[in-house]
Amino acid sequence: MARPTNKSKTLVVGARGSPLSVAQTKLVIASLKRLRPDLNIILKTIKTSGDSPASILGPGQGDKGLFVREIEEALLNSQIDLAVHSAKDLPFQLPQGLTLGPAPERGNAFDLLVSRDNHTLKTLPKGSKVGTSSPRRQALLLNFRRDLTIVPIRGNVATRLDKIGQIADAIILAAAAVSRLEGLNCAQSYQIPPEIMLPAPGQGQLALEIRADDQQLLSYLAPLNHHLSSLAMTAERAFMGRLGAGCHAPAAAWARDEGHELIIDAIASDPQGVQVLRCQKACPLSSGLTGAGDLGNMAADYLLDCGASVLCQGQNPPPKAHKDAQ
Known about the structure:
alpha/beta, D-Maltodextrin-Binding Protein, domain 2, Double Stranded RNA Binding Domain, five-stranded mixed sheet, 8 helices, 13 strands, disordered C terminus
């Protein structure tokens, strides 16, 4: 059966088949329907390479493209009109012919520690097993508590929650993921402050990807744009891009507005959290998207100058005396 065209005001929205991806995509669809009740919007789930257990890489060998390649192919082939991603899963370099649409308002950017006994990172018993397969989370956990044991853990959010009390005493989840899924038993959770665990670039942010020449869809999406979230995502993605797609060192970045400034905190670390390079940079909010991109580049350049390029090669750079930039 032939796929409906845009002339019939039908939009096909693509997403991964995971419960979280579907839930996030439904949020975008609901917002679009409120703005354009005349649109017929269809949700199409697409299995990606990242959803296959056989394709999962080990810590430090992650490939963000695993979760988006097939969805982007569907976009380029006009099988779908819009793709909804978690921004942290989206590579900096998009395929030719695709672009990012407006940025919806960002959700909670931080991480949660979930345990049976409502622990914080400080109150976890010595030697506790913490479940995560994120190199960033592992490095920052070990930097804060060298005595913790990191247990690799994968699967969707519900699957990981089931591991508490089985193979782990606690697990780390993205706060935004928990808030967007219904029916989860996460009452005993502790939000980890950014001074202990800085979030991944784009965490909590949804990214809307479309064909670059689809001006009609761009006009439909325009009212969804949240200016400050757009600035933060631009800064964090620029940081990620400048640090280098081939960099497997754990990295983190968090941009936000404070007063009349856009501020970014950024980190690069070795996998064991022995040496964590940190910086903070700022630019005027009035500098817009161009200034936000320059800000992310500036933060990455600073960390690269401090030795992050050596960390990316799997080595520990010699300590370099410097003050965190303000």
